[in-house]
């Protein structure tokens, strides 16, 4: 079959080029199939090429290009056309596009090294044996292959560009979504520190509803103190980044918002500043909590100070109570020597009056010898009176000295060298009258070193324990006196004091509570419940020693006190 023009290959190619020039879309592929159908006067024509996703198909007379994800007949054409420019086959019917035709020919287009394209023409009138037709098809293929290749490459490039633009848009949207979902203020500012971007949390923090209220404005306008922002920007330019920099922003209604900012100065390859980027965290609530905590700490410190004062007062009151218990005994101890001192004073006064009378008797008188003997007797008795009076004075002085040693003010007393054995002796001397009718006291005081301590406080502890023992022994109302044994011994870097009694002991159910404040087993009005609690505080906390108790009901109780020789650690 002859073509309808003298030079059909070139004219057809020219018409195809014109069609491609007019239409930059894929519909030009359908136009190509229709031009070839008309030029070669055939009932069936189409073009297609393979893509990674399937086949792109352009049928003559079709409404639009189609994508066929699977096509066995296209795969078959590709296989039989491999390595050939023209391939004959048939009879065959193009699925979905007209009846079968006897004679088909395939023109392979070189679209790229890996992607060939195909034009198929079908007719039943005669085979594709005309050299002119075959040469025309080859010429058409040579001319339109590079054009089609360029179009496909451009379309592929456009598709890739669109894909990347979509990816970029998605990435931008994703990043903006992350930024907007952050509870922290995130911003960017140009080199002159004008805001160019801010997230929703940032606008909420600043009390702004519209981005136009902040975009393009100086960041310093939103600082509580504009000068602070200038300092931050300068530091950021110099150092390149800041981490957790404390700032204050101006929130809604001008209220200060306490924040921490972490920022970066973004520069190009040459070191030129491009923009500032920062994340600002609102810590106003934490600052408020910190202020509350500081206030709570101040209140706690004040309460602790008040507690110390109360504790000091309780210690003082307990000591006064202990002294009160001893007052009657001390008065008795002092009253005895005072009584015979007073009696001796009266006797001495009478003797001196008689001496005056005797001294007036003339020497050599009849009764002179008798009166002389009387004077000798008086002088002898006066010597006894003065000796007894001296003993009385010594006893009073010793009692007052022991009382002074016992009752030294422990709160104002500094830690100093303290003789444990002497402290025990003075305490027992002060308490002797309260002890003597109820218990015997045995001491076994070892050769122990002086210790660094507050002697008045240690004396109070010894008195508390001894008087508790006296009261416990007295509660049994036995005919025989009880026994209190006090011993001291060196115990490595410590001095140990053991105070043991043979009283009724402490019940196991309450022994763990005896050092608790206000705990007492005594009858109401006979004990404050503070003595042992204060004793524990003095030994364990003030002197960094230890005090323990061992007791067995019906057998008695022992208190073991260990005190460090060097005292508690010295504080600056």
Gyration radius, rounded: 59 Å
Shape: rod-shaped
Order of helices and strands: HHEEEHEEEHEEHHEEEHHEHEEHEEHEE
Mean pLDDT: 82
Count of distinct strands: 18
Number of domains: 4
CATH topology of the largest domain: Beta-Lactamase
Share in helix: 40-55%
In angstroms, what separates the terminal alpha carbons? Answer: 120 Å
Category by helix and strand content:
alpha+beta
Low-confidence stretches: 1-7
**DSSP helix count?**
11
Main sheet: which strands, in order across?
3-2-1-6-5-4
Question: Main sheet?
Answer: 6 strands, antiparallel
User: Based on the structure given, which CATH architecture of the largest domain is correct?
Assistant: 2-Layer Sandwich
Tell me the β content. 15-25%
CATH class of the largest domain: Alpha Beta
CATH superfamily of the largest domain: Transcription factor LuxR-like, autoinducer-binding domain
Task: Give the structure's gist in a few sentences.
It is built from eleven helices and 18 strands. By secondary structure, the chain is of the alpha+beta class.
């Amino acid at each position: 079959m002859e073509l309808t023009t003298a030079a059909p290959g070139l004219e057809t190619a020219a018409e195809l080029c014109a069609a491609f020039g007019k239409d930059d879309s894929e519909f030009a592929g359908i136009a190509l199939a229709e031009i070839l159908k008309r030029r070669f006067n055939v009932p069936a024509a189409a073009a297609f090429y393979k893509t990674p996703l399937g086949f792109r198909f352009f049928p003559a007379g079709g409404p639009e290009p189609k994508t066929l994800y699977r096509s066995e007949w296209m795969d078959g054409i590709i296989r039989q056309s491999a390595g050939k420019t023209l391939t004959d086959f048939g009879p065959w019917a193009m699925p979905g596009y007209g009846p079968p035709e006897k004679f088909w020919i395939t023109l392979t287009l070189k679209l790229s090294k890996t992607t060939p394209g195909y034009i198929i023409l079908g007719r039943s009138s005669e085979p594709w044996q005309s050299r002119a037709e075959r040469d025309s098809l080859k010429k058409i293929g040579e001319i339109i292959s590079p054009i089609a290749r360029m179009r496909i490459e451009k379309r592929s490039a456009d598709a890739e560009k669109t894909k990347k633009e979509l990816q970029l848009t998605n990435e931008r949207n994703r990043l903006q979504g992350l930024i907007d979902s952050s509870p922290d203020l995130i911003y960017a500012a140009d080199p002159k520190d004008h805001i160019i971007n801010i997230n929703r949390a940032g606008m909420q923090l600043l009390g702004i509803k519209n981005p136009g209220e902040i975009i393009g404005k100086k960041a310093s306008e939103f600082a509580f103190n504009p000068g602070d922002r200038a300092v931050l920007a300068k530091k950021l330019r110099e150092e390149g980044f800041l981490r957790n920099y404390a700032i204050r922003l101006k929130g809604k209604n001008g209220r200060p918002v306490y924040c921490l900012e972490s920022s970066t100065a973004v520069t190009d390859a040459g070191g030129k500043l491009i923009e500032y980027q920062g994340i600002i965290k609102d810590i106003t609530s934490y600052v408020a909590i910190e202020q509350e905590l500081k206030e709570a700490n101040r209140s706690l410190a004040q309460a602790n100070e008040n507690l110390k004062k109360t504790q000091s007062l309780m210690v003082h009151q307990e000591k006064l109570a202990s002294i009160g218990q001893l007052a009657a005994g001390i008065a008795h101890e002092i009253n005895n020597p005072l009584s015979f001192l007073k009696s001796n004073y009266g006797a001495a006064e009478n003797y001196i009056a008689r001496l005056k009378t005797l001294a007036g008797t003339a020497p050599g008188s009849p009764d002179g010898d008798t009166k002389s003997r009387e004077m000798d007797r008086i002088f002898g008795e006066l010597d006894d009176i003065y000796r007894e009076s001296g003993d009385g004075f010594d006893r009073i002085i010793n009692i007052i000295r022991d009382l002074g040693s016992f009752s030294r003010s422990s709160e104002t007393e500094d830690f100093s060298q303290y003789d444990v054995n002497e402290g025990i002796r003075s305490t027992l001397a002060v308490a002797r009258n309260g002890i003597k009718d109820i218990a015997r006291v045995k001491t076994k005081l070892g050769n122990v070193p002086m210790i660094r301590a507050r002697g008045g406080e240690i004396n109070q502890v010894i008195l508390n324990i001894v008087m508790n023992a006296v009261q416990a022994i007295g509660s049994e109302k036995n005919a025989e006196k009880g026994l209190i044994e006090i011993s001291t011994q060196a115990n490595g870097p410590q001095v140990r004091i053991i105070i043991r009694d043979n009283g009724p002991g402490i019940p196991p159910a309450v022994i763990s509570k005896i050092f608790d404040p206000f705990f007492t087993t005594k009858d109401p009005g006979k004990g404050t419940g503070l003595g042992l609690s204060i004793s524990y505080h003095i030994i364990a906390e003030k002197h960094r020693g230890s005090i323990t108790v061992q007791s067995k009901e019906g057998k008695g109780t022992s208190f073991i006190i260990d005190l460090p020789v060097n005292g508690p650690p010295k504080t600056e």
